[in-house]
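User: Working on a comparison across species. This one is Esterase from Mycolicibacterium arabiense. Can you predict its structure so I can line it up against the others?
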Amino acid sequence: MINPATVTLPGRLGDPTLEMRTDPRSDPRMLALFAPFGLDVAAAELPVHRGSPLDDLLATALAAEQAFTGVFAALLAGVPAVDGVDRSVETVTGVDGNAITLYVDRPSGTQGRLPGLLHLHGGGMAILQADTAAAWRNQLAGRGCVVVGVEFRNAGGALGPHPFPAGLNDCASALDWMHDRRDELGISTIVVTGESGGGNLSLATALKAKRENRLDRIDGVYAQVPFIFGGYDDPDPALPSLVENEGYFIGPSVMTLMASLYDPGGRHRTDPLAWPYFATTDDLEGLPPHVITTDELDPLRDEGLAYLRALQKAGVQASGHVYNGVGHAGELLAAAAVPDLFDRAVRDVVAFAHGTSR
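Assistant: Here's the predicted structure for Esterase from Mycolicibacterium arabiense:
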């Protein structure tokens, strides 16, 4: 019988001095890739907080966007592109009257219908652009999917400032466009998918579709490491990973910056369309099949797990898995170092998309 007094809690719950580089759970391959960029140590605290002036928040977000864009490009430089993928660009008009750029990737020379993926990129709904996920969309298309990437409006960065619900409205408009062109695009089904902030938008797009009686447009949702809680400057004890993995790749000040720009003043603090963590059983009942994936060393891990359990409690066909040894989106960002995890991620999204066939 285990004596509870001898059990050491994981991560910073057991040792508040730990960093990703000293946490014994960390995959050494990921650490070797991250170390030259300083991503293996505690994330730096930003010089802003939720109550900072908007101009200061926006300036900090723009600087963070520029830094992350450069680092992500360097991390993914070693991931070879898949040949035999055609790319086109479409411009559509959103429900707010704004222009939305869509990037369409599809396998060359294919006949018959293929699964469709509506991809929503990460960045906390506040920074980064669709091109940062171009390599990921290329991989998915190379495995036999038609992938539509959405250049939605951000709450900050070069495409901001457009707080909630602007970005979500753009994702919903892109979904409608894709649904209306199933025949033209040659797609059999539509799975909404995204990572981090894109995971939030994927889940929220489904919730919004249910509220608006538009669920016929969605055949499944695949959310990776979703950013869905919002209260990162006031952690919920029900989400111990926020403390266990604090500062591992992303810190609470970065997450709070994104949340503050997306939801200024916290006016939508418990609205599940802004923060799906707060979805009720009534919100979730009747949704299409979902997959929620999380990472062992991610501060966001437990909010994703909580959403998965809520889906299952509501009777939704939902499953998920945890990538051990890596931090936030490590199976994607550290693809060059952990190709086995990256390949599993690609194969799993594609397999889910094929499994939703009507």
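For your comparison, note: Strands lie at 85-93, 99-107, 114-120, 146-151, 187-195, 220-224, 290-295, 318-323.

User: Helpful, thanks.
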